[in-house]
Specification:
77% helix, Growth Hormone, Chain: A, MFS, mainly alpha, disordered C terminus
Length: 431
C-alpha cells in the first residue's frame, strides 16, 4: 500500500501506515515508562542513599540532559537508516542502563545510570518521524499528536504503577531496599521485547525500507542521504529554532513536573508515597487525550484556514499554560494544587501536540533534522528548569518563575508564521 495515508483507521493493523502508528506509540509508551520509572520511587531511593536536595536536582538534570544530544542524533539517523532500524537500536541499547539502575549501590552509580536512561527519551523523535512519513497533511497533526500523547502517557502510568509494583514485591516478602530494584527490572525487559516486535512488524515508509529502496533506485520522500546533511539543512531554518524554544516551554515543563511532582506532593502537602504517585500520575495521564486533542485541533484549524491557523492555536495554548502554571505555584491546598496542575497540564500537553503538528511543514527534505532539533528543545527546557530549581532551592518559587518564562516563550510561536501564500501542503511549506 504505497503512499501516505489520508485517514487514521484506529482499529486496523493491516497496512504499513497503521502498523507504524501503533508500534511507534507502543514503543514510545514503553520508553517513557522506563524513563520515568525511577521518579515516583525517589522518596524511597532518597532515604536509602541519603540524597540532598542538590543531589536530587542533579539526578533530575541527568535524566533529561543526555536526551538533548541523542535527540539531535536520532533525527538525522532516521533520515539515513530509517526509523525501523533506529528505533530497534535505541530500544536495545537503552535497556542496558534501565536494567543497570537496579544495581546501583550509591549516589554516583545511580546518577550514572540515570544519565544513561535519559537516552531513551529520544524515542519521541523517532515516533514523530515515523508517523510523519506515513500520514498525509490532512491527518499528520492528529497522527503525530495521538502517537506521542499515548506514548507520553507511559510517564503517567509509571508514576501511578511503580509504587504499586514495588508494594506488591514488598508484600511478597522482599525487603524495601530490594523491592524498588526488582520493580525497576520490569521496564528494561519490556524494552527488549518491544525491540523485537518493532523490527518484525514495521517498515520505514509506505513504499518499504530505506536501504532496499535506495538499492533499487526507487524514489521516496526522504530519499536524501540524511545524517549530517539533514541536520545542517534543518539548522538553517529559523522556524526550527523558534519551535525549539516553544517545545522547551511546553515539553520541558512536562518533564520537570514528571520528575518533581511526587516529591513535591510528599514534602509540601504531606501525602503518602502512593497518594503522591497517583496525584503526579494524573498529570501524565492527560497525555492519553490532551496531546492528541492539540494535534486534532491544529488539523481542524488548518482545514478552515492555513498554516498560520496552526501557529495561532499554539500561541493561545502556551499563554494558557503559563497562566495555569502561575496558579499552580500559588495553590495553598492539595485540592487546589491538583486542580491547577490538571488545568495547566491540559494546555501543556495540547501545546506539545500543536508544536509537532507544525514540524512536518517546516522542511520536508530535512524532516529528521527538524524533528531532532525541536525535540531536543524540550529537554533543554527541562535541564534549564532543573538548574533553576537547584539555584532557588524551592519548588514553588521555581514553578512561579517557569510560569513567567512560558508566557515570554509564547511570543516565539507567533514568529513561526508562514507567508500568506503558503498552502497546507508539504511542498509549499518546505519553501
Amino acid at each position: 500500500m504505497a503512499g501516505k495515508a489520508n485517514s487514521i483507521k484506529l482499529f486496523s493493523f493491516n497496512t504499513p501506515q497503521m502498523r507504524a502508528f501503533h508500534m511507534s506509540w507502543v514503543a514510545f509508551f514503553v520508553c517513557f515508562f522506563a524513563w520515568f520509572a525511577c521518579a515516583p520511587l525517589m522518596p524511597v531511593i532518597k532515604g536509602e542513599f541519603h540524597l540532598s536536595v542538590g543531589q536530587i536536582a542533579d539526578i533530575n538534570i541527568a535524566a533529561v540532559a543526555i536526551t538533548i544530544l541523542v535527540r539531535l542524533l536520532v533525527g538525522p539517523l532516521c533520515d539515513r537508516f530509517g526509523p525501523r532500524k533506529t528505533y530497534t537500536g535505541l530500544l536495545v541499547l537503552g535497556a542496558i542502563p534501565v536494567l543497570g539502575v537496579a544495581m546501583a549501590q550509591n549516589y554516583e552509580s545511580f546518577l550514572l545510570f540515570r544519565l544513561g536512561i535519559g537516552a531513551v527519551g529520544a524515542s519521541f523523535v523517532i515516533t514523530q518521524y515515523h508517523t510523519s512519513v506515513m500520514f498525509g497533511p490532512k491527518v499528520v497533526g492528529t497522527a503525530n499528536a495521538a502517537s506521542a500523547g499515548w506514548g507520553n502517557s507511559g510517564g503517567g502510568v509509571a508514576q501511578a504503577l511503580m509504587p504499586l509494583l514495588m508494594g506488591a514485591v514488598v508484600m511478597a516478602g522482599v525487603s524495601e531496599t530490594m523491592g524498588w530494584r526488582v520493580a525497576l527490572l520490569v521496564p528494561g525487559v519490556a524494552m527488549l521485547v518491544t525491540a523485537v516486535a518493532y523490527w518484525k512488524l514495521t517498515q520505514d515508509c509506505p513504499e518499504g525500507n530505506y536501504a532496499e529502496l535506495r538499492a533499487a533506485g526507487v524514489p521516496f520522500e526522504a530519499s536524501g542521504k540524511g545524517g549530517w546533511a539533514s541536520f545542517v539543512q534543518a539548522c538553517g531554518n529559523y522556524r526550527a529554532w523558534l519551535l525549539f524554544v516553544t517545545y522547551g516551554a511546553c515539553f520541558g515543563i512536562e518533564l520537570f513536573i514528571h520528575n518533581t511532582a511526587a516529591v513535591y506532593y510528599v514534602d509540601h502537602f504531606g501525602l503518602s508515597l502512593k497518594a503522591a504517585g497517583m496525584a503526579a500520575g494524573s498529570f501524565g495521564l492527560l497525555a492519553l487525550f490532551a496531546r492528541a486533542l492539540g494535534g486534532w485541533l491544529s488539523d481542524r484549524a488548518a482545514a478552515r484556514g492555513d498554516l498560520n491557523s496552526r501557529v495561532n492555536l499554539l500561541f493561545i495554548l502556551m499563554v494558557g499554560e503559563g497562566l495555569g502554571l502561575l496558579w499552580f505555584s500559588h495553590a495553598a491546598s492539595v485540592t487546589l494544587a491538583i486542580a491547577a496542575m490538571l488545568a495547566f497540564g491540559l494546555c501543556t500537553h495540547m501545546a506539545c501536540g500543536a508544536t509537532y503538528a507544525l514540524v512536518p511543514f517546516v522542511n520536508r527534505k530535512a524532516l529528521g533534522g527538524v524533528a531532532g532539533i525541536v525535540g531536543a528543545g524540550g529537554n533543554v527546557g527541562a535541564v534549564l528548569a532543573g538548574f533553576l530549581m537547584k539555584g532557588t532551592g524551592d519548588v514553588r518559587q521555581t514553578l512561579m518563575i517557569l510560569g513567567g518564562a512560558v508566557l515570554v516563550a509564547s511570543v516565539c510561536a507567533i514568529g513561526v508564521r508562514f507567508s500568506s501564500s503558503a498552502l497546507e501542503t508539504p511542498a509549499a511549506a518546505a519553501a
